[in-house]
Structure formats: structure tokens, C-alpha cells
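Deliverable D5.2: sample structural annotation.
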Amino acid sequence: IIWVGFGLFQTFYLLPAINTTDAAGLRVMSKMGKLPGFAIIMPAAALIATLAGLALYGIGSWHEFLNTLGGVFLTIGVIAGVLMFGHGFGLGAVTNKFMKAVNTWQGAGEAESGAEYQAVRDLGARLQSNARISAILGIITVLGMVLGPRFVSISLGG
């Protein structure tokens, strides 16, 4: 849940705040990116959560899963989780480009105009819009995990 929770916080609070506070927000993001473990904790949490989810899903019977409403919810949650995992790792490249652009902008004197600043703004907007995709997939994943066990007794047929 830390993986999805931080993703939601980042998408709906942190990135919008950084993008609307201009230079001050970019300085905060730069400091966060330099914290020990910041670039490791989210990918590690994502990998552990995805592998655990796949292992737990693999314990069940496909026939049983697809014949109950709960199984359908779990299946949708697993698919969304795997998609979120893949999208998140792709988003890591955008995040790295953003952080490099912030460092370049800082090295150029932090002017709130010019090519360096525009590159940071463009990458920040791209990062924020892609983070929304991950957030939606995360919400679907959590809903699948929560609803699946609650509706596993409802048969869909035969």
C-alpha cells in the first residue's frame, strides 16, 4: 500500500504544488531527489508488492477466480497492478530526466526563464500527467484487492 499511497500523494498533492510554486517548488524537488534512498524505496516497494501480488494470485485456481465476482475483481486488480508496475518503471526515466533538468537549471543560476527553465517546466508537466495514469491504475489495483475477497462467494454461473 505504501507504493500506491505515495503515488497518490505525489500525483494529487506534491507534483501540483511543485508545478505551481515555480522555483521554490523545484528546489524542494531537487532536495528530495538527493535524499538517500529516495530513488530506491519506490521501485523496491513496487517490485515487492507486484511479486507478492502475483504470488498470492497464483495460489488460487483460475477456474475458481473467473467464476466468481470476487475473482473477477482480483483479476482486474492484478492486471492493473502489473500495468502500474510497468508504467511506473517507464515513468522512472521521465523522473530522472526531470531531476537532471532541475540540476542543470540550478547550475545555470535558477533563472525563471530561458531554455533550462522551460525544459524543467515541460518535463514537470509530463511527469504530472503520467503520474495520473499510475494513480488511476493504483486505485483500480487497490479496489480489486479490497473488493475481491468481499465478493468471492458470489458465483457468476455454472
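Annotation notes: The mean pLDDT is 86. The first helix runs from residue 2 to 20.
The annotation will be released with the project's public dataset once the embargo ends.
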